[in-house]
């Protein structure tokens, strides 16, 4: 039988007290609705209403932005405390906060924003009052993001936006959006002439948001269309026509700086280990004792250990440095390929009981009992969602190009 993995490091008494503080807070404040949302999370994006409720509870404790500087409302925790917090969140099964606001556009505003922009936008992000969607990809500009066509033209003291975005996660829940648009001409490199906008109101009648039903049956992504949408000039984050610099900085946080993938992946491996411990191998024994299963499981566990070590190095690096971009790309490649292999193993272990489409049982608050083992309920949606893990956030092929150009020259 494969034993449960021990803690990776021996903690000091001070860190152990901190761990207990976090554990006590979660036990006292995470209600059953929030815990159910954690159990029924099938991608990197938990059920919206419940995760935003948890976000606001954490904000009340001052813990919603564990990686932000203290001067902007962050915790000021060092890397070990950040990891302990995430370990305890995964142990308890609470949903991880949505990354678009707190882990992506928030750091970009802190780094590039004017004082007026910081004052206007950061409090709402921190408190969970605003949720920002990410307007990057377009129908003909996905991995080749620099070929985007969505355009903003100046008209007096406003820009007028026309174009579309796609694969815009949770745009149907968002009230705000950060957006890449073309504001300059096409001379020179395609990255030139792109600006980074902060759109404050998605209820504008010129904005049409249409949810996309995914392979798992859930409307997580959206198409977004802009028709003569007027926004003020001060919506531009950073310099006009230099939005690519902002976008690259933000992508470092998306690919490796927003949360610990390793902590989440260990949670998935624990679930697999539990399932294997109560699943027969077809020959009178248990699957957990099968040497082929054990080999696959241990190889994945070692991948996760290696990923955690890489994440710890990245967490101490200055974002935007020459080394941090390639490092975030390396984390993106290794983590997304690891989660694909983890979900493949999960489906192999669970077998046919994981194949049933159980949308009602996956709905928080429905009261519908799952067919079969509750631990198998989320496995097929996770598998399907993570088929795209090596594409979203910049395809792994693009990340390998970045590594080759930046490090290997």
UniProtKB/TrEMBL annotation:
Domain of life: Bacteria
Residue ranges of domain Acyl-CoA dehydrogenase/oxidase N-terminal in the record: 13-129
InterPro entries: Acyl-CoA_Oxase/DH_mid-dom, Acyl-CoA_Oxase/DH_mid-dom_sf, AcylCo_DH-like_C, AcylCo_DH/oxidase_C, AcylCoA_DH/ox_N, AcylCoA_DH/ox_N_sf, AcylCoA_DH/oxidase_NM_dom_sf, Mycobact_Acyl-CoA_DH
Cofactors: FAD
Classification via SUPFAM superfamilies: Acyl-CoA dehydrogenase C-terminal domain-like, Acyl-CoA dehydrogenase NM domain-like
Keywords recorded for this protein, A-Z: FAD, Flavoprotein, Oxidoreductase
Acyl-CoA dehydrogenase/oxidase C-terminal domain boundaries: 241-408
Annotated Acyl-CoA oxidase/dehydrogenase middle domain residues: 133-229
Any one Pfam family match given in the protein's UniProt record, by short name: Acyl-CoA_dh_M
Family statement: Belongs to the acyl-CoA dehydrogenase family.
PANTHER family, alphabetized: ACYL-COA DEHYDROGENASE (PTHR43292), ACYL-COA DEHYDROGENASE FADE29 (PTHR43292:SF3)
Protein name: Acyl-CoA dehydrogenase
């Amino acid at each position: 039988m494969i034993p449960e993995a021990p803690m990776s490091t021996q903690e000091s008494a001070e860190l152990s007290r901190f761990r207990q503080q976090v554990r006590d807070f979660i036990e006292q404040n995470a209600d059953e609705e929030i815990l159910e949302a954690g159990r029924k999370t099938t991608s990197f994006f938990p059920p919206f209403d419940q995760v935003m409720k948890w976000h606001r509870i954490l904000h009340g404790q001052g813990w919603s932005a564990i990686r932000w500087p203290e001067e902007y409302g962050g915790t000021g925790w060092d890397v070990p405390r950040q990891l302990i917090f995430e370990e305890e969140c995964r142990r308890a099964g609470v949903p991880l906060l949505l990354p678009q606001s707190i882990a992506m556009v928030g750091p970009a505003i802190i780094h590039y924003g004017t004082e007026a922009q910081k004052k206007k936008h950061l409090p709402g992000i921190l408190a969970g009052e605003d949720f920002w969607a990410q307007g990057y990809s377009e129908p003909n500009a996905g991995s080749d993001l620099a070929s985007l066509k969505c355009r903003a033209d100046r008209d007096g003291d406003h820009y007028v936006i026309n174009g579309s975005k796609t694969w815009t996660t949770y745009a149907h829940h968002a009230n705000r959006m950060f957006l890449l648009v073309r504001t300059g001409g096409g001379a020179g490199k395609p990255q030139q002439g792109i600006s980074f906008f902060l759109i404050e109101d998605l209820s504008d009648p010129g904005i049409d948001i249409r949810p996309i039903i995914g392979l798992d049956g859930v409307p997580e992504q959206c198409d977004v269309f802009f028709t003569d949408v007027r926004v003020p000039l001060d919506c531009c984050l950073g310099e006009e026509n230099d939005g690519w610099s902002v976008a690259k900085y933000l992508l470092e946080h998306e690919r490796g700086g927003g949360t610990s993938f390793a902590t989440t992946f260990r949670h998935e491996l624990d679930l697999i280990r539990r399932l294997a411990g109560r699943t027969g191998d077809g020959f009178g024994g248990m699957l957990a004792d099968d040497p082929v299963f054990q080999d696959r499981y241990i190889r994945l566990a070692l991948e996760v250990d290696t990923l955690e070590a890489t994440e710890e190095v990245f967490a101490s690096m200055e974002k935007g440095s020459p080394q941090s971009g390639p490092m975030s790309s390396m984390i993106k490649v290794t983590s997304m390929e690891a989660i694909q292999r983890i979900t493949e193993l999960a489906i192999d272990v669970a077998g046919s009981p994981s194949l049933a489409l159980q949308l009602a049982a996956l709905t928080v608050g429905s009261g519908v009992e799952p067919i079969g083992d509750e631990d198998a309920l989320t496995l097929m949606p996770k598998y399907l969602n993570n088929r795209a893990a090596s594409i979203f956030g910049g395809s792994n092929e693009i990340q390998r190009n970045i590594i080759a150009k930046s490090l290997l020259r």
